[in-house]
Amino acid sequence: MNILGVSYGYHDASAALVVDGSLVFASAEERHSRVKHDPSFPSSAIDQALKHAGLKPSDIDAVAFHEDPINKLSRSMVSSLSGWPFSFSSFAATAQEAIQNSFWVAADIATHLGIDSKVVHSVPHHLSHTAMAFHGAQCSAAAVMTIDAVGEWTCSTITKVKKTPKGTQYQLCHASPFPHSLGLFYSAFTAFLGFRVNHGECSLMALASFGEPRFKDEVEALLHVTKDGTHQLNLDYFDFSSAKNLPINARFIQSFGAPRPFKSPLVFSAFGDATDTPCEDQRRYADVASSVQYVTTAAVAAYAAKAHKETGLKTLAYGGGVALNCVANAALLRQGRFERVSIPTDPGDGGGAAGAALALSDKLDAPSKTQVAIGPFLGSIADADSAESILGALSPEKWHRFSLLSPQPLAADGLKWERLSDPAEVIARAIALIASGGLLAWVQGRFESGPRALGGRSILARADDISVAQRLSKRVKLRAGFRPYAASMTQGAAERLLFLEPGGDYRKMQTAAKVRPEHAHHIAAAMHIDQTTRPQVVSPTEQPHFHALLVASGKAMGEEVLLNTSLNEQGEPLVASAIDALAMFARTDLDALVINDLFISKERNA
Length: 606
Fold this sequence. Notes:
By secondary structure, this protein is of the alpha+beta class. It folds into two domains: about 140-345, 2-Layer Sandwich (Nucleotidyltransferase, domain 5), CATH 3.30.420; about 380-605, Carbamoyltransferase, C-terminal domain (DHBP synthase, Alpha-Beta Complex). The chain is built from 20 helices and 25 strands. An eight-stranded mixed beta sheet has the order 14-25-24-15-17-23-18-22, with helices on both faces. It has a five-stranded mixed beta sheet with strand order 3-2-1-4-5, sandwiched between helices. Strands 8-7-6-11-12 form a five-stranded mixed beta sheet, with helices on both faces. The longest helix has about 30 residues, at about 280-310.
């Protein structure tokens, strides 16, 4: 059975394909449209999914949409009416969205694909997250916890999921109703601190490490964690019904002060090299962030404790957008209630299409199907031939027109490329460049599903040289100094460098880990100010080529670890195709680009 998953209409539209119970393709539309968090109908992602499987739209047996649009509409309308008459503009916008989208989802999908609308099914939002988390855990039974902003009327759930001879069974144990949402709570503070909602939550988490939780009591007045582990918002501080830019009110500002102006600079540095002293307002922002992270971490841990009590199971599978908070995830492991904690590579709304398709497969497909393990590399493959053909047609003058951030032009013959048939030669050249302080774009095979760069579309550099990370921030990523970089390493290096918690799955960069002080110099460029990093432990069976590169880094630089960050420019999604990678290589100060076996380098003028 071929089941297509589709999500669109809010943010992070995506498409996924499940064939005979196995997830074979998943991609956000942004990777193809090049529009960050693209909410539009995922035409390109669908095309790529069908192309990957060699299918036509007529071969699709069923389509799963990632939420119940009518149920979502009822919540949106009731919510916008609650502030009447001041919420009139919000109500009008909601009504317009309903007319344009919610009533016509099945017909819209059917029209785009040229299929019968009767094969289009709506899957509840949190069931989509639940299915994605459970199947990603690859186990026979799990307590599945989902926490995000809101889906239809639900903000968080606990579900007991088991595989049985009759199929996968879902038993809902708890659902937290709107508006008592940990995701909305965190996003409200994201906006208050001057970051974009649904994009800047990671910046709040990074900023928290520079502060102290001196506003903890004030934050706890907004989010109450009950004795049974659920959480409730104090609605006296929020305004989710109007069309304001910030979902907060005067009482909120009275407690925490004036909001940070959007894009106003912050002087903090993840490398501990800040040249300016933070002013009183900047210290307040950091302390508010620290307090919010403290309370959020406690709330996630309390809800996980409830999941353990409700289900009695040993494995926790965790989904929803809040599952991307690696600091709270580390606390889950330290809590020690579960023998194993599993988080998919795309637990948020970007994984909604995949989760919906998996949930519908559980309902419609034969229960005897055995699912293939869900790996992170579910996108389109990189085509080195297309990049090489473009390189051959570019003159130096044309190449320079692309350059935006290169500090000096290339020599006339300074762009060089070669196909290397021996993988060992690719590794040797890549490590030689990295060891010399170079910045390497690393593109291999299919791209990763989700927001983490895991060696499919990565920028790699020395992890022990802060000056290299500073150049990366200033000349390639244009990244705020308070945001740290992540690290990829072998299992052996992880055991030497980090304090690892039992039961953690460190392969997906979803959990922070403390760095051992005696080895901090090996990872200084990928370590946050609080002495943590977000590690990816690379498997030699899952990623043999990348693992070999890490082993070579140990021989060349003393430890099997590299700084790893996503291959994208500021405000851009991760690159998908070889052409995307080549364009970024031209525009920025990257030194070399490897696309499978194609090695491209820049030779600078002296």
